[in-house]
Each structure stands twice: as structure tokens, then as C-alpha cells.
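Q: For a teaching handout, I want to show students what a protein-ligand complex looks like in C-alpha cell form. Below are the inputs, and the small molecule is 1,5-di-O-phosphono-alpha-D-ribofuranose. Please produce the holo structure.
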Amino acid sequence: MDRTVQETADRIRDMTIRGAGRIARAGASAIGDFAKGYQGNDLGRFLDELDQASRVLLDSRPTAVSLWNGVHATLKGVHDAGSVDEAREVLISNSDDFVKRSLEAVEIISRIGAKRVQDGDTILTHCNSSVATGVIKEAHRQGKDIRVFATESRPWRQGILTVNDLASAGVDTTLIIDSAVRSVMKKVDKVFVGADTVTSHGALVNKIGTSQLALAAHEARVQFYVCSETYKFSPMTLFGDMVTIEERDISEVVSPGEIPESVKVFNPVFDSTPARYIDSIITELGMIAPGSVYDVMVRQFGPDVLKE
Ligand code: RI2
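A: Here is the structure, written as C-alpha cells, with 1,5-di-O-phosphono-alpha-D-ribofuranose included.
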């Protein structure tokens, strides 16, 4: 197996590279680098190795469809190539294009999302979403007076990344433990979270605990916004496929010997928030209602997606 591809897959699996957008860009870049470094001239062999490389990347983490979309956007048209050189050119250009469009989407969403933030707002965010923090930082940059509650997000504690990022941008930030969400909700005006996958029904799959935030926000009549590039929309869900929820090792939750061996530990990484708890999904195409995800998806992926 190509070393760069294997290393990227390992770094995604052990979460050195994490966040749905980053893993998508890493997957697309790894395919581009594989093409750049390929030495042979046999097209059939090249395509076989490319297929293997794609599978290694896609097997690294199962939930965020951004990785699948990033890899597939990079592979687009490669099977029409007549030579290794042609295939290489297609892959490098697709990979660069995906990374560029992905970064642009994050910037556009930051600007659109910041418009929803008002002077004096208190915002709650969960885990560490570069898109959600992008919105918050942009609102702050525009001079809006805001306060942010950020959840710790056990067990990986990505909330520490979030508070460091927001604090260094000068945002008034308070770290809370995950179980404090309902307690602080009465002080919150808006919730902004990221996305790992959005289904064709407008449900959000995001870091474990997101659905509890949504329920607490619903109860308190607090607006709940999802910040998601459209490459986090899952075409597979058009056919009724369920999103696989990753479960990670128990060592992320307890240390060896800390609890009796008879005790089981369940460590799901993501959960699903039904569309009815989501006010709006902020995408690079604009704000869309969760009920419109299906239409946007068919437009984005083309009508043929329904026949595949
Ligand atoms: P951005 C993360 O997953 C979080 O669930 C976050 O909300 C989501 O990816 C989106 O991140 P993990 O990789 O693309 O920490 O907005 O398990 O950065």
C-alpha cells in the first residue's frame, strides 16, 4: 500500500487528523499525492491500486460522509482516462479543486452564519467544529458583543481545542462539562454546531451529545443551527441507507483496572438529531430548511444520483 495513503488513513483513525471537513480534505489530498508519486505506466494496475488506496482511506472512520464525498469527488472521471498520465492529471486537479472548494465553503458559511448572530447573543457550541467556530469568530470579528459556552465533549475533550481557539481570537468563552448543557440553556440565545453527516431527511449526525443539546434547546425555545458544507450531505441516505455510528475503544473512557471486568462500556462517537429539532442548516449555498436537504442533494449530485 502507498505509504502516504496508509499514513493518512492511520492518522484519521487515531484522530491525529480529525473534524469532518479536515478528514475529507486529507482523504482528497492523499489520493492526489498518490497520483503525483505513482511511477508505473500500466493504467489497469494504476486503477487497481487507486481503488485499494480509496478503500483504505474510506475504511479509516465510518461516520462522516465528508470523507466519502471528498474521495469520490477526487476520483470523478478517472475511469475515462486513456493513460496513467491522463488519470494522474484528473486526480491531481480534482483533489486540488475539492480542497479549495472545501476551504471556500467554510469561509462562506462563516459569513452567512455570522449574520444570524446579534449583538449581545450568548451562543452554545459542542465539540470542535471548525465551521461553527468560524461563524462565531466571524461574528466577533465584525464587532458583535457575544459570549460563548463550549462543551468539554468527553471523552476526547475536543472542547479544549474550541475554547483555546475562541479565546485566542478574543471571544468571551466559558467551558462547561457536557452534563451542564440543560442547566446553561436558559442563558443561551442560539446554538451553533457542526456536522459529520446530514441525511436526505435533514437529520444531523454529529458528535455524541448533540441530540441532547437539540432537545434542551427545543425545550427552551432556543434556535438550533447546523453549520455544514454540502459535501457533508449523504447521497447514500437517499436510498434509505442508515448512517453507521462509529464506536471507539473503551480505553478512551476508562483506564485499565478502573472498573470490574464484568462492566461493559459503550462508547458511541456520534448521535443523530431529527430534523424537527433543527431550525436551519447553514451551507455555502445559503441557509436551508432541513426539509430541503433532499432537493439540494439531487441538485448537487445530479438527477442521475437517484438511479445509481
Ligand atoms: P468540522 C467532529 O468529529 C465533530 O463531530 C464536529 O462537529 C464535526 O467533526 C465537524 O467538524 P470528530 O472528528 O468539519 O472530532 O466543522 O469525531 O471541523
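A: Two things your students might notice: The radius of gyration is 20 Å. The first helix runs from residue 3 to 13.
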